[in-house]
Amino acid sequence: MKDELRPRNGTSTTNSASLTTLLQETANGNTDSFAAFYRSTRPRLLARLTFILHSPVLAEEVSQEIYLHIWIAAGDYDADRGSPMAWLMMFAHRRAVDQVRSEQALADRERAFGRRQFSPDHDVVYDEVGQRLEQRAVAGEVCKLRSRQREAIELAFYGDRTYAQVAIDLDIPLPTAKARIRAGLKTLGRRLSSSSHDLP
């Protein structure tokens, strides 16, 4: 196997023949060759992924998935169909596009959920429950809520946070924060209605 790949003509670009050799050796299970291929191609791969994903963190995550695929599928590379870098970039483009679509679909679902679950800020349930949250019995009911709803409601009412501030504190989208608070308030409203005679 070749030692550490060296630049040609003063450039940092590794020639296709060297990368082809590294892929062939990787296909035979040579971890050193895979490591050399990784070091030689990673800067360009990350630059491409970051350009598509607009997130260095996501680019890093996706790059690891791509290199895992390369390790497994190195034997599938066909030099007659293109250079190793072109082959790698093809995988990068496909995986990055899939990631963008996945992120968009998740955001769409969260927005749709928020629209279905959340009604205007000032409504009967919100005001009624808000006025009674300081009561001991209500505090006990808050503790029984699901953890995500409970932490959102505690921030909003006991922490005197706005919806936007709750979203920032919990690192979640604003519609999701609203949906959690609304769902928790509905649960509290039902419980308060059924046990109102126990409240002072």
UniProtKB/TrEMBL annotation:
Gene3D superfamilies in alphabetical order: 1.10.1740.10, Winged helix-like DNA-binding domain superfamily/Winged helix DNA-binding domain (1.10.10.10)
Annotated GO biological process: DNA-templated transcription initiation
UniProt entry tagged with the keyword DNA-binding: yes
Entry keyword annotation includes DNA-binding: yes
A Pfam family recorded for this sequence: Sigma70_r2
MF term (GO), any: sigma factor activity
Annotated ranges, domain RNA polymerase sigma-70 region: 37-104
Keywords: DNA-binding, Sigma factor, Transcription, Transcription regulation
Domain RNA polymerase sigma factor 70 region 4 type per the UniProt entry, residue ranges: 143-188
Family assignment from sequence similarity: Belongs to the sigma-70 factor family. ECF subfamily.
Protein name: Sigma-70 family RNA polymerase sigma factor
Organism in which the protein naturally occurs: Nocardia vermiculata
